[in-house]
Amino acid sequence: MMGADEIIRSVRDLPSLPAVVAELLMTMEQEEIDTHALAAKITHDQALTAKTLRLANSSFYGLQSKVTSIAQAISVLGFHSIRTLVTACSVTASFTPRPGGDFDFGAFWRHATAGAVAARVLAPHLRVNPDTAFTAGLLHDLGTLVLVTRFPLDYRHVATWQRQHDSTTATAEQALFGTDHAVVGAALAAHWKFPQSIQMAVAEHHAMPADDGMAPANLSTVIQAANVLARALDLGGAENDQVPPLSLAVWNAFDLDENTWDGIFGTTEQLYQDMCQTLSP
Is the dihedral of CA 86, 108, 267, 222 positive or negative? Predict the structure, then answer.
């Protein structure tokens, strides 16, 4: 089995995101942005442009008329949404299944999409930016793909260990690798130069805050809740995935009534179906 240090080092050997995506990520913390120049750079990548426009025109955004260019999409949906879509399309294209592998990539991306959608729906209730939450939700389990694609033979033992010990995936990974997908995913988010808040949200998405209080109203709390919500609504994950417990502190942070939660569940389920039709690699 690989050691934890070796696994983290392997992240540095992974390809970088396309230059235009790296540039887009830098704009997440900038005040002045030349959207026209960035639109032109995005357009140079034809595959990325095609997928972004397909997503912009999906029922997820419910536009009244079709957008046919990145510049037009930015003017209609806003730069923040297009940046999120371009980043999402690029991330989903970064890992491809190996022939003959037994890992269920389809189930993985369905859960990642569900986590992203749930995060987007939950974010306004904690005054977190919905686009940032969507990106963090999409990334939250990406460490799993690092382990699966870099150490495929070792990772096959995770499911067996999980069944034998009736454990979560993260517990099985800790037992076999000395680390888990949350830590590895945070290292990947750092390698790809995502903002610190997203790195922290990925690292902490399985954290269990003490129940004697209220979790902070931040991105990490949104992603913890989104991960549980995606599992609880059974949105596309693998059959043996357990629904992780939701900390009472996280529940208290949202402080929502039953009707509001029902609305969140329904909206998440509807938007998930819309997004799945478009975002799959």
Answer: negative
